[in-house]
Write a structure and sequence with these properties.
CATH architecture of the largest domain: Orthogonal Bundle
Strand content: under 5%
Oligomer: single chain
CATH class of the largest domain: Mainly Alpha
Largest sheet: none
Helix content: over 70%
Shape: globular
Radius of gyration: 24 Å
Structural class: mainly alpha
Number of helices: 13
CATH superfamily of the largest domain: MetI-like
Distance between the termini: 6 Å
Length: 307
């Protein structure tokens, strides 16, 4: 196991460098950041030259990337165009989005897996049909429609919640935004769990366990469910980074100042340092989540061993 972890960590290095290099190139060719600094009125030549020199934009792109990466490994993600260090923006944004993502993942695991097990064990029955129709509706409706509708009904008309989340973003105020963020993924987890459970119920080892006279609950929990969760864990593990990076719509709806808000502001103002810095951390989140998912395989299935 230790050798496997070390090998995977070494494999993450070229992936991280390649992903950040591609990101750096894409962000820097999307527009002129100096024009975004000057607003609607174009900068004069002297001011533009001074700004480019101040932020290192007058250097070749490869040199900018090399300088950026050397600073990243020392914990310096650069300075935003408003003068605030990007690391300071991360310190205020990431805790909020992490809490929001945790709420969303809990909804996926608790509600999604529970509904998937319920429908997988009762395939073809009315409850199965009802859940399938409900998940299909959730997948079909865009997230911003779901969020705005719940905000209007629960927050404005019925007054059950606050329409917007306060700046400190307490955990109890993130339940509805977390449900909105997790809605589509929750539906996929439900359908994936249902399909995987139904397939594993017909496996030979399950029929053998039933023939031995094992209790039905033990067969379902120890044999069927553990193997059925492998594709579900894969989906949820890769979905963690997607939830954090894709929270822009949800955070805009509920006025949450997290990663999505900072990315939106950075893209809107063509603030390359902010966008590259935040997405660099999201790349690390994706890589670490994938590593943890691979390690969980051995826990769920004893037949899987890593050399």
């Amino acid at each position: 196991m230790g050798r496997y972890v070390v090998r995977r960590l070494l494999q993450m290095i070229p992936v991280f460098v390649g992903a950040t290099a591609l990101l750096f190139v894409m962000v820097n060719v999307m527009g002129d950041p100096v024009a975004g600094l000057c607003g609607e009125r174009a900068c004069d030549t002297a001011t533009a030259a001074q700004l480019k020199q101040e932020f290192g934009l007058d250097q070749p792109l490869w040199r900018q990337y090399a300088t950026y990466m050397s600073n990243v490994f020392t914990g310096d993600f650069g300075t935003a165009f408003n003068g605030r260090p990007v690391l300071e923006l991360m310190a205020s944004a990431f805790p909020v989005t992490v809490r929001l993502t945790l709420v969303a993942v809990v909804f996926e695991i608790v509600v999604g897996v529970t509904l998937g097990v319920l429908t997988g064990l009762r395939r073809g029955r009315p409850v199965d049909t009802a859940v399938l129709l409900a998940t299909l509706v959730v997948i079909s409706v865009p997230t911003f429609v779901t969020g705005l509708l719940l905000q209007l009904l629960l927050g404005v008309r019925w007054g059950w919640i606050r329409p917007s989340v306060p700046p400190q973003a307490p955990l109890d105020q993130l339940i509805l935004p977390g449900l909105v963020l997790a809605s589509v993924s929750l539906a996929y987890v439900t359908r994936l769990t249902r399909t995987s459970l139904a397939e594993n119920r017909r496996a030979d080892y399950v029929r053998t366990a039933v023939a031995k006279g094992l209790p039905r609950r033990r067969v379902v929990v120890r044999h069927v469910l553990r193997n059925s969760l492998i594709p579900v864990v894969t989906f949820i593990g890769t979905d963690v980074g997607a939830l954090m990076g894709g929270a822009i719509v949800t955070e805009r709806i509920f006025n949450i100042h997290g990663v999505g808000y900072q990315l939106y502001q950075g893209i809107l103002r063509q603030n390359t340092q902010t966008v590259v810095g935040f997405v660099t951390v999201l790349v690390l989140v994706f890589l670490i989540a994938n590593l943890l998912v691979d390690l969980l395989y051995a826990v769920l299935d004893p037949r899987i061993r890593y050399a």
